[in-house]
Amino acid sequence: MDRVTDEAPLLVIEGVSKRFGATQALSDVDLTLRSGEIHALVGENGAGKSTLIKMMTGIYAADEGEMTLDGQPFAPRNAAEAQQLGVAAIYQEPSIFPDLSVAENIFIGHQDRGLLVNQQAMARDASQILATLDVHIDPRLPAAGLTVAGQQAVEIAKAISLDTRVLIMDEPTAALSAHEVDRLFRQVRQLKASGAAILFITHRLEEIFAISDRISVFRDGRHISTRVAADVTEDSLVREMVGRDPADFFARTEHHEGDPVLRVSGLGRTGVFADISFELRRGEVLGFAGLVGAGRTDVGLALFGVAPADTGSIELDGKELTISSPGDALRHGIAYLSEDRRRSGLSLPQSVTANITLATLKRYTARFGLLDAARERSDAETFRQRLGIKTPSLRTPVGQLSGGNQQKTMLAKWLNAEPRILVLDEPTRGIDVGAKADVHRFIDELARSGMGIILISSDLPEVLAMSDRVAVMREGVLRAIFRGARATQEEVMALAVGAE
Amino acid sequence: MTTDASAAIARPRRFPQPDRIKEISLLGMIAFSMIVFSFFIDEYPGARFFDRLTTSVVIVAILAVGQSIVIITRNVDLSVGSIVGFTAYLTGDFLATFGSAGPIAAIGIAIVAGAVLGSINGALVAFGGVPAIIATLGTLAVFRTAMGLYAGGIDITVDRLPDWVLEFNQRSVLTIGGFDLTLIFVITIAVVAFFQWFLARVRGGRRLYAIGSNPDAASQAGLPAARLIFLAFLTSGALAGLAGFMYLTRVGTISAAAGAGLELRSVAAAVVGGVSILGGSGTVLGAFLGALLLDELRLSLIRLPAISEFWIEAALGALILVAVVLDATLRKRLNSRWAAEVRRSIGEPAPVTQGIPEGGSADA
Q1: Do B239 and B257 touch, CB atoms closer than 8 A?
Q2: Concatenated DSSP letters for B51-72?
Q3: How far is A6 from chain B (nearest CA, A)?
Q4: Strand A214-219 and strand A222-228: pairing?
Q5: Closest to B338 (Cβ–Cβ): which among A99, A144, A278?
Q6: Does ipTM surpass 0.90 in this model?
């Protein structure tokens, strides 16, 4: 930590709000960035960080409030305009042109050297900039083979060549090794020394304290605090990130836990997660808490055979299984509800009925391989009533339903497969309060009927309220398993972000 | 700022550029196949074969240049065959009516008409948001029908055209021995050279690659993608117009079906020539060599008595598949070698396969 900046404000955000349908993504947010500072922005998933970035880079317009850059109103209409005004963003997955040379990637869009492209001059300028970043790549070579770290270096070089004054870095370290993170930090400090303001978004606490001058916390679309990093402790940070009231959650009813049904030991997939061991009992809800990217979804995908594990074992009722495809998983009674219902969960243009019977079509095959439409319809109707799916008709394409009803349809699809173990990945993300309560009530019902349920959720109060036990993951490793009632939000969050 | 910085670069060992390799390998394939055929065909390859190849390749070669420009932007122009037919008919009708007009006026009319048709494609794709394959499949039929209505069932025939038209196809710039360097081939070479230079050196040309390479990043970088895509289609249309003129001078008789099927041959030439159908890479020179290779094979296979005409298309099709598969494999290899080179040059270990810190799980 060198000095507390008392420079004049560079970018000022005042009273900004943004609403998407029923969701208030940002409400009345203030934030000030000064030149020559590294400003960390932290918050749980859904705290409103991404929305704020998209506003600063011209992808969204604010509903209310205003932004000023150097005292001038700042309201870019697109990313290119924001960039011209000096505000650029680098994302976790950088966007480069794989077929162009490294130098062209840096200068494209602003090669103001007349009509002709002088490749030599461009390569020379590019290597000068790259050298200041301590990156030694021949700028004439195609960018296609660069590692993520190399691509980020190219984007930082581009920001330098553009005289970027505000650089937003959205989880730039997520895909980097420790060695690469060190170099990235040196590059960021270099940028800071040149007078730029850097908005640094990361989930890793040690990084926040290592690099930032000031820290702002967002929660549920609100700005909670902005403080000088030296005044912030891990404890206070964690407390501010969580702190929602779990009272409005459905409370689990008491129920009896049966014998262990699933035993996972030493499960791992190279580079993604390692040494995951746990037990799941009949009638138990085992929560998986942690941040996005901690490897929870990957464990779910391994159990379901989408991306099989390469070490460790999975035992069902004491018998070891090999699960190398979703077909294997379903045969053994394991179903997985995807976190991304629009992409991998549902077939949006197809009807509610078709989606509910999609995974179990074999059962509806009558003579000559034809489908028994009447049975499909009656089963779908049963689920419609049981789950309360609100749809004009069972023939309605699922894409036309609300998020909550889509979610229920997806749930019906997997329940129709009559699984013994159900993995639910973010089952209530992006659905309204009513549908959320329905899903919670349903999870409880399923558990009481004896199903073993794994509940992956980034919604901390939800996972604590719904689970009998809560497993916490960070960086591909299972850090602890709490008895649900014993854990507090602070304890779980501290483990998830890596605070002591 | 000093230039010392560039000296500090640990330059990776010489890295073969995919595009260069592609062009050299195409030349090699042309040479190799000609050597093979020379064992089976008399007086091959001689002056007659050279003359036949260089006059026959020009139409597809010019179309392949335009097609490559469009494909590089991650689009495709399926209407070029219809544009060839349309402009050939229009130019023929013009020459039949104004017998005193010369080649310059005729070429001008063909190019302008082609550009107008191309701009319709460009507007549909760039500003109307219609996927290129659908937009140009539509205009393929529309242009063909418009031509039929315009022709009203009357073909352009040789006897209605001025005498210079068919001679134009044979006009020679230079004759050495029996080898004729025809004017139309020189024009084709000039077109290839100009666009090769344009795509490699001019800002607008490099931006076409950028758009095809990563459309999202292109819009983030503020490139005028819509305008450039529009211009790419316009250029493809204009070149198809030029090809239409050449079609007229070659064939002389223009019916309602003139030029049909050329769109697929132009795509094939571009793809065999190393222009990635996914956009962002390839060169006009490669596409030209692709056209040359395909035409050389076609003309050689025709002269092989052992191969019936029926099999020629199948053989050519199989060859295209082989070329594309080989290309994909080669590219993948080169890219991974390049990645290894970069890591070495910046002193990095092999790719990270496990980055998971120590830590166990515990039941609390």
Answers
A1: no
A2: HHHHHHSHHHHHHHHHHHHHHH
A3: 30
A4: antiparallel
A5: A144
A6: no
